User: Fold this.
Amino acid sequence: MSEIHYGGDAAQANRPLIRSMWRGFLCRCPNCGEGRLFDRFLKVTPECAKCGEELHHHRADDLPAYLVIFIVGHIVIAGFMGVEMTSGLGLWQHLAIWVPLTIVGSIVLLQPVKGAVVGLQWALHMHGFGGEKDILDDHPEL
Assistant:
């Protein structure tokens, strides 16, 4: 059974997906697990200070924000519905609980989720992480 390699050929080094995503989630370099992945809150460092792996190829775009909305939304709605069914809290009490929880949960998860997406792209040799030149797609003439 042959392995599937995205963005490169089978001669490229195998990059374990789960390990790479976990290292990214911990905001570490997906290659070595030691270097910092971010220079600022959401700005990925151009290359790892420990191993020199180039990380500027990432194209996380809106996926991390979408995933955070999906995760936090499910947690908050489930919590809200559970509390609503078991207690008689008023609207202002629900707002006082769930709005701050939504904001804090989103801020806390955004950087780790973006790191995991960068780790995913690195592990699958996507967007220049496979050694090929990063070329923008041209739209065909209509």
User: Anything to note?
Assistant: The helical segments are 17-25, 63-86, 91-123. The CA atoms of residues 68 and 108 lie 9 Å apart.
